[in-house]
């Protein structure tokens, strides 16, 4: 069976492709045609990689071939093809990265926990160090507001995956366009998904998948029934996704896909759409033009979130954790 990768490589087109791919009949052999040369956005590579990796796991005995993959040199350099098992181009994380991009890379959750135990640190501390290192590659090691914003955004999303998804591996990539004043960050996992995560908290035990994808972006929403009840800087308070989507909507976009549904938000609109993936994928498009006042705005986001949480059934109405209120733990809030 021949399967044509969509010509439109936008995230929502790839999300629709997941629906089509999950409905193809069983066959002894599948040939994936990647088509002609065209721009392949970083997050689209990450999302398509997850979809093709999951397709492989559903058809373990089928032969898989590819066609026209040679037309995509940047995707090969980025680690795209080998991230789902095609022996072409760099392995994930093999490219060194630069002040313009982080290739598709993998973070082993078990190794993160092992490092935390062996160094007598919290998992959050380990993830903060890792996120800071990744942000340093994109910002030429400048400790400025862009570095702080990237480190914060990646840390909060990765921490959410570690705490809730059950996934063994986190996949990520990023690209920075200085002249466009934009950074795109993609993070994905093959875990239990948002609906199953929220359902572990009794108030959300019967929630539907579409509602779960939208509800989790609101303040104080968590699958942990003890969210907000521990006095710890890394307290799981249910504000991580809320704070990061507020950052992205300051001139950028935030896209969340989990299970059968996705939602895309910017400063003025929200669009829902259907898909079909295992786990969760997040795209953060951050406007870098003016980040000077962001630390103060995070405090305002937290205050507004706490007020909004009081109107949401089942939400944690305590203040967001200290870590979620500041760009880094070293950045003091008076």
Plain-language structure description:
The protein has two domains: 2-83, no CATH class; 101-325, Heat Shock Protein 90. It is built from eleven helices and ten strands. The chain has helices at 11-21, 42-58, 73-77, 80-83, 109-118, 123-138, 145-164, 194-198, 209-215, 240-248, 294-309, and strands at 2-4, 29-33, 63-67, 101-108, 169-177, 182-189, 253-258, 261-265, 270-274, 280-287. It has a seven-stranded antiparallel sheet with strand order 4-5-6-10-7-8-9, with helices on both faces. A hairpin with a 4-residue loop joins strand 8 and strand 9 (270-274). Helix 10 (240-248) crosses helix 11. The chain is globular, with a radius of gyration of 19 Å.
